[in-house]
Design goal:
Structural class: alpha/beta
Helix content: 25-40%
Order of helices and strands: EHEHHHEEHHHEHEHHEHHHHHEEEEEEEE
Distance between the termini: 44 Å
CATH superfamily of the largest domain: P-loop containing nucleotide triphosphate hydrolases
Largest sheet: 7 strands, mixed
Length: 362
């Protein structure tokens, strides 16, 4: 069971949106998902169609009692196919004061102890955290192995990026265990040069900590929340649904075993007679261009030498690959969106039905 906290001390960056819609995308891929709503505002509960005021019990009863771990299964509700919910309520805001007399370690272990009883029940647990560094956030991080930080693509977010990393590092130190941290660009408007440039700055600052996927501005995400369902059930063809499906794919493929396998594959390739292959992508508007294919585990720009050149007003992304003879499928990842190679007419259907470009190395 992988437990992931969705954290950012800044409000309005897409924490709840990410929690609910990533849960929906993972459930659509066949995973069993539990959403844990740790925000007293209970927005994740509302976005999954649950009215907190109608409930007799919520996470407060689980966390306030030293023996409350056994109550977790009692409060869990089925929100929609593949997604269960541990709901929140406004009473959660009183938890810190209620537990003020207990030592720090005992107070921050409550959620971890409760979730330990569910190890075989779910593939993923997604925890929606409040927009504050509080006891609730500490509980969430202590129970997690991974953290996703939704980060809006704006100048304010970029200006605070270093402080955000420092805060996460401080929280990891306070909760006493290591966490895998990744940043997810959200609220992205690819129609503007400003947004594209800002996304490039975020990628440059966070480097490998940044998701390759981005979540675009999409009014359907708000509409789905009002209807109380993830967007993949409300508008499966909307940009928001496609974006969170891409995020879910990255999350699902993010297990260490996949990295190990990719390394082994790369080592095997080195023993063969690899050739240097150079391909180019030309675009005067794009801000960030990467390449992914079956030659690098579909991880954009992994094991790829990349440089950007200017030819008049056109920017040219030069990608240098070392590949042994064979036939490969690939796509470009341009400003957060997958695209086939416009300069290559050789295409083929990929294993998931998407259209890929084809590269022949002889």
């Amino acid at each position: 069971m992988r437990t992931i906290s969705i954290v950012n001390q800044k409000g309005g960056c897409g924490k709840t949106t990410t929690t609910v819609n990533l849960a929906g995308a993972l459930a659509a891929d066949g995973f069993a998902v539990l959403v844990v709503d740790m925000d007293p505002q209970a927005h994740a509960s509302l976005a999954l169609g649950v009215e907190p005021d109608d409930l007799e019990e919520n996470l407060y009863e689980v966390l306030v009692d030293p023996t409350g771990a056994s109550k977790l299964s009692r409060i869990i509700l089925n929100a929609c196919p593949g997604i269960d919910l541990a709901p929140a309520g406004i009473v959660l805001s009183a938890l810190e004061q209620k537990l003020a007399s207990e030592n720090h370690e005992a107070r921050t272990e409550r959620l971890s102890a409760a979730l330990s009883s569910l190890q075989t029940a779910y593939d993923f647990v997604l925890i929606d955290c409040p927009p504050a560094v509080s006891l609730l956030t500490f509980n969430a991080l202590r129970a997690s192995q991974e953290v996703i930080v939704p980060l809006e693509t704006s100048s304010f977010a970029v200006d605070g990026v270093q402080k955000l990393l420092e805060t996460i590092a401080l929280l990891m130190d306070r909760v006493g265990h290591s966490l895998s941290v990744r940043v997810l660009p959200t609220l992205y408007d690819g129609r503007t040069r400003y947004a594209r440039e800002t996304l490039g700055e975020i990628r440059e600052l966070f480097k490998e900590l940044c998701f390759d996927s981005v979540v675009r501005l999409n009014v359907k995400l708000r509409e789905a929340a009002q209807k109380g369902v993830p967007i993949n059930l409300y508008a499966p063809k909307a940009n928001g649904s496609l974006d969170y499906a891409a995020v879910a794919m990255e999350v699902a493929l993010g297990a260490p075993k996949d990295v190990t396998a990719a390394i082994a594959e790369n080592e095997a390739l080195e023993t063969q007679s690899a050739r240097e292959i150079v391909i180019e992508y030309r675009d005067s508007e794009a801000g960030d261009v990467r390449i992914a294919g079956d030659f690098n585990g579909w991880v954009p720009d992994r094991d790829v030498l990349s440089r950007v050149e200017a030819q008049g007003r056109t920017r040219v992304w030069v990608k240098v690959l070392r590949l042994p003879p064979g036939t490969y499928q690939y796509r470009y990842f341009v400003d957060g969106r997958w695209r086939v190679d416009p300069a290559n007419q050789d295409i083929s259907a990929g294993p998931m039905g998407q259209t890929n470009s084809v590269l022949h190395v002889r």
